[in-house]
């Protein structure tokens, strides 16, 4: 019924195994018009975000390389990523570059460079340690490219294809009202049962109305238990939504259910959707609002 599309800044964080192709990747993003920074220490990310925001729309596509060359700062990366997830104006995406051990060893031999984590040792020692250190970060990546069988040109072409058109999916929060007597919505991700709240159905003149009517909405929202529920559920969703978005989910369906899907769930669906509409693309669905059947 309603939607609110936000203009967001696209940020790609390029990370992964040393020798897996991060240099080719950052050059590819430069060719796509991204503002690129190589080896940005995570501790400087908050300051960099301030500069981005102050620039207005001039830095709306950014690519950053963050890797273990700055390992003394690396412990701060997860906090920086969590902070990013709380910002509604930016959509961060982690691109993790991977390759098998034999390929990485061969590439180090070809370039005659030492591994950054084993400057005076064997490349394999550094590769093993780096895999261990990057394991958690790899689990948080939205995109993982395995470059073992890729030539630099092929990696470049894949990035150009993936990011040349803004394929960034707008994260949509779809808040749905429904009636339990008509069955659970099969596409719901989160379900909240509000049948414990006072029911306007038992007030005769409100029975044929819906939660879209001001009188019904005022009745539903006036109770202390309703306000306490809304306080807790909006606080919970404010915590959860950025994490769903960060994991690359395109849509989250939040279902609010009462007995018939006509009064309480409708009023609360409208409230919750409006609460988040300034931070997320929101849509409202009232699945059972037209089913004017008697509740029991």
TrEMBL record:
Residues 172-290 form the RapZ C-terminal domain. ATP binds at residues 16-23. Residues 10-166 form the RapZ-like N-terminal domain. GTP binds at residues 67-70. SUPFAM superfamilies: P-loop containing nucleoside triphosphate hydrolases. HAMAP family: RapZ_like. PANTHER family: RNASE ADAPTER PROTEIN RAPZ. NCBIfam families: PRK05416.1. This is UPF0042 nucleotide-binding protein. It comes from Cytobacillus purgationiresistens.
């Amino acid at each position: 019924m309603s939607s609110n599309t936000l203009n967001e800044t696209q940020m790609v964080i390029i990370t992964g195994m040393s020798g897996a192709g991060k240099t080719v990747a950052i050059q590819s993003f430069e060719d796509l018009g991204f503002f690129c920074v190589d080896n940005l220490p995570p501790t400087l990310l908050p300051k960099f975000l301030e500069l981005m925001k102050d620039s207005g729309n001039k830095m709306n596509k950014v690519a950053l390389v963050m890797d273990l060359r700055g390992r003394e700062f690396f412990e701060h990366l997860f906090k920086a990523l969590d902070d990013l997830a709380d910002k509604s104006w930016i959509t961060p995406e982690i691109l993790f570059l991977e390759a098998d051990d034999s390929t990485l060893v061969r590439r180090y031999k070809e370039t005659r460079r030492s591994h950054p984590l084993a400057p005076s040792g064997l490349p394999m020692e550094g590769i093993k340690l780096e895999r261990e250190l990057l394991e958690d970060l790899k689990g948080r990546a939205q995109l993982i490219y395995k470059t073992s069988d890729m030539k630099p040109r092929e990696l470049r072409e894949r990035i150009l294809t993936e990011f040349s058109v803004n394929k960034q999916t707008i994260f949509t929060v779809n808040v749905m009202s429904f009636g339990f007597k008509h069955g659970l919505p099969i596409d719901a991700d989160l379900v909240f049962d509000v049948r414990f709240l006072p029911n306007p159905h038992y007030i005769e003149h409100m029975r044929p109305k819906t939660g879209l009517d001001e009188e019904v909405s005022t009745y539903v929202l006036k109770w202390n238990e309703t306000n306490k529920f809304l306080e807790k559920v909006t606080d919970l969703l404010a915590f959860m939504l950025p994490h769903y978005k960060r994991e690359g989910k395109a849509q989250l369906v939040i279902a609010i259910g009462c007995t018939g899907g006509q009064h309480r769930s409708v009023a609360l669906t409208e409230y919750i959707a409006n609460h988040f509409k300034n931070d997320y693309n929101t849509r409202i669905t009232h699945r059972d609002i037209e089913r004017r059947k008697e509740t029991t």
